[in-house]
Amino acid sequence: MKALFIGGTGTISSAITKQLAEKGCELYLLNRGNRTKQLPASVNLIQADINDEERVAKLIEHLEFDVVADFIAFEPAQLERDYRLFNGKTKQFMFISSASAYQTPLSDYRITEGTPLANPYWQYSRNKIACEEYLMNQYRENGFPITIVRPSHTYDERSIPLGVHGRKGSWQVAKRMLENKPVIIHGDGTSLWTLTHNSDFAKGFIGLMGNIHAIGEAVHITSDESVTWNQIYEIIADALGVKLNAVHVPSEFLAACSKEDYRGGLLGDKANTVVFDNSKLKRLVPDFVATTRVDQGIKQTIENILANPELQTEDKEFDRWCDRVIDALQGALQAINEEVYK
């Protein structure tokens, strides 16, 4: 198989790149070349900015592919560019959408590919929906051979999967745990969530590549395992060897008092219970099974982060914000109790 990835070094795509290289795929990566140290030696790098359409067109002028996958497209205009570049040059074009595009709040917590697409809370998700609509129109009207893939919360060994963190990543939450400081969990922590290790996602994605039954289809790829956010944070604390000191904060409150996009990321995604029905994926890829259990995957991630200080990026602004939120809640509770028991 001859494939081209636009991107190819991110959380999701890096695992696919690695597994395809092991299978002997003739793989090309088109990116700016900023993260190439860990790439397998067999991978062919086309160093360019995909937004420089004229230059990219020249670089791929004499190339054709079985599969082209864009991992870094977020708006319809970027897919319009991809259509101009790759129409007639690939047997399958794969677009990475998002499971956050599914209806929020859900009418049924069990999500299938037939669940309506609608997210009033998050522009990111609405853009992904618009991208899907553009591609499906190109498939219907022009025969462009598309496959839409919807990942949910996919993680790797470089970042701890969390519900609430700052701009600089997940380490500051782990650091708070290690310092026995209180850690914020959104809501009451009992909603169900699905975490998927990137190595498992890669198995499903590769099974869709070159799969004639996947043309014109939208498919999500997730684990079948669902856990609560309380369980996720307990797993993290256990892997760190500490006792969890959790403070539950309403998601609406977090969204209202933060500069981060918690409105989209929480109200439009992580605050909702999600359980995925992967029947469609398993029909298309009969041998697919996610084998990395959440507690095992998170333990591996934390061991890797603790062993690599360069992954331990502090976020003092987020740390101070956590303290202010927790102090505000405790202060409100104290004021109410003082009023009640006067």
Care to describe what's here?
The radius of gyration is 21 Å and the shape is globular. The strands form five sheets. A seven-stranded parallel beta sheet has the order 3-2-1-4-5-7-12, with helices on both faces. Strands 6-15 form a two-stranded parallel sheet. The protein has helices spanning 11-22, 53-59, 76-86, 123-142, 171-178, 198-208, 229-240, 251-256, 262-270, 279-284, 294-307, 316-340; strands spanning 2-6, 26-31, 44-47, 67-70, 93-96, 110-111, 146-151, 153-155, 183-186, 192-193, 195-197, 217-221, 227-228, 246-249, 275-276. The protein has 342 residues and is an alpha/beta fold. The longest helix is centred in the last third of the chain and has 25 residues, at 316-340. The chain has a single domain, classed as Rossmann fold. The N and C termini lie far apart (76 Å). It contains twelve helices and 15 strands.
